[in-house]
C-alpha cells in the first residue's frame, strides 16, 4: 500500500540532504510516494509568499511532512516559518532524541540516550504582544502558559516514556523565579505525574539541568519542559552527541506531524555536496516510527550507525572526506 507524504526541500543545503534522504528511503522499499511543496525563500521566489496555501493544503491532506531547513533571519525580517507551521497545525509536541553515535566529535561517544520533549506552541515563542517603544529603547513580549498546554505536553512525555520502555521523566522549570508561568507548568506536571506511578518523576531547575547535562548526561532519560527552555536544552543535548548534524526533530499534533533536521540552512556550503544528511535521515526514522513502521525505522538507524562505525564516506563535520551523496551511498549499501 502506497502512502503519500509532503516533502519540503527547504533552503540552502536543504535540497541536497533531502535528495540523499529520499534516495535512502526509496532503497528501503517502503511504499512511500512524495508530494513536493515549497516553503521559505524558494516559495517566496517562485510564488511570492513564504508559506503558500498550497503547501498548507498538502500537509493538511497528507498529515505527514518531511522538511529540510528553512531560512529564518536573525533579529529582523520575516518571522520563523517553522513557528508559523507549528501554530497553524497545533503541533504541540517537539520531540528531539539525543543518542551517542560512534566516531563523532563528541565528549560522550557512548552512554547518552535521552529525549527532550518540548512544548511547541506557547510560552516565549508565541510572540504575543511583541512591540518596541517609539524611542526604540524598550521591547516587550507576553509569555503565556496554559494549564491545557502544560498538561498535554507532560502527558505526551509520560506516554512516550511508557510506550518506549523508558523509566524516568525529568520536569525542567524555573518556578523558583517565574512563579506564575513556570509555576503553573510545574504544578500541572506534578498532577499529571501522579497518573503514572510506573514512571519515576523528578524535577530540576533549568540552570541546574544544563549543568547536570554537561557533567552527567547519563542520568537523564526523558526531559519535558516549556518552549524556550526546550529549544536551548535540546541544542545542548545535540552538542553532547556530536552536533546538530546528528539532531533530528519531530513536531507532533493531533491532525498532522512534521519531521525535520533541526540545523540551519548553512548557505555557506550550499550546493557543494558537503552537508551531512544524518539529521534528516534520523528525522525520517522518527517519521517511520510515527507511521507504525518501527522495524524499518530501526533498520535505517542501524545502517547509519554501521556507516559511522566503518568511517565510510563520512562528511567533513564527522572527520571524513565524503560528500552528501557518497555518505548516502554508503548507508544504502548497508541497507
From TrEMBL:
Entry keyword Oxidoreductase: yes
Source taxon at top rank: Bacteria
Protein name: Isocitrate dehydrogenase
SMART domains: Iso_dh
Domain Isopropylmalate dehydrogenase-like, chain residue ranges per copy: 4-331
Annotated spans, Disordered: 125-145
Biased composition range(s): Polar residues: 128-144
EC number(s) given by UniProt: 1.1.1.41
Keyword Oxidoreductase: yes
Species in which this protein is naturally found: Cognatilysobacter lacus
Keywords: Oxidoreductase
Lineage of source species: Bacteria, Pseudomonadati, Pseudomonadota, Gammaproteobacteria, Lysobacterales
Amino acid at each position: 500500500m502506497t502512502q503519500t507524504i509532503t516533502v519540503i526541500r527547504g533552503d540552502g543545503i536543504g535540497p541536497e540532504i533531502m535528495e540523499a534522504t529520499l534516495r535512502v528511503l526509496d532503497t528501503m522499499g517502503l511504499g512511500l510516494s512524495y508530494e513536493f511543496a515549497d516553503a521559505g525563500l524558494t516559495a517566496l521566489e517562485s510564488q511570492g509568499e513564504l508559506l503558500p496555501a498550497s503547501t498548507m493544503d498538502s500537509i493538511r491532506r497528507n498529515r505527514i511532512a518531511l522538511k529540510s531547513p528553512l531560512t529564518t533571519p536573525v533579529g529582523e525580517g520575516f518571522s520563523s516559518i517553522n513557528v508559523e507551521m507549528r501554530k497553524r497545525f497545533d503541533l504541540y509536541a517537539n520531540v528531539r532524541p539525543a543518542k551517542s553515535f560512534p566516531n563523532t566529535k563528541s565528549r560522550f561517544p557512548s552512554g547518552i540516550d535521552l529525549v527532550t520533549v518540548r512544548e511547541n506552541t506557547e510560552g516565549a515563542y508565541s510572540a504575543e504582544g511583541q512591540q518596541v517603544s517609539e524611542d526604540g529603547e524598550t521591547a516587550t513580549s507576553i509569555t503565556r502558559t496554559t494549564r491545557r498546554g502544560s498538561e498535554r505536553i507532560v502527558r505526551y512525555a509520560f506516554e512516550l516514556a511508557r510506550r518506549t520502555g523508558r523509566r524516568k521523566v525529568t520536569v525542567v522549570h524555573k518556578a523558583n523565579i517565574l512563579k506564575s508561568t513556570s509555576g503553573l507548568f510545574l504544578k500541572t506536571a506534578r498532577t499529571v505525574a501522579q497518573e503514572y506511578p510506573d514512571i519515576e518523576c523528578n524535577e530540576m531547575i533549568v540552570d541546574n539541568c544544563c549543568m547536570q547535562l554537561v557533567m552527567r548526561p547519563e542520568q537523564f532519560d526523558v526531559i519535558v519542559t516549556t518552549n524556550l527552555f526546550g529549544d536551548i536544552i535540546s541544542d545542548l543535548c545535540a552538542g553532547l552527541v556530536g552536533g546538530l548534524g546528528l539532531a533530528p526533530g519531530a513536531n507532533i499534533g493531533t491532525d498532522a506531524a512534521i519531521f525535520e533536521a533541526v540545523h540551519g540552512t548553512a548557505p555557506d556550503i550550499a550546493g557543494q555536496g558537503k552537508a551531512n544528511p544524518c539529521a534528516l535521515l534520523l528525522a525520517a526514522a522518527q517519521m517511520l516510527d510515527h507511521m507504525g513502521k518501527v522495524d524499518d525505522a530501526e533498520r535505517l538507524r542501524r545502517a547509519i550507525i554501521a556507516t559511522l562505525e566503518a568511517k565510510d564516506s563520512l562528511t567533513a563535520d564527522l572527520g571524513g572526506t565524503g560528500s552528501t551523496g557518497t555518505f548516502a551511498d554508503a548507508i544504502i549499501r548497508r541497507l
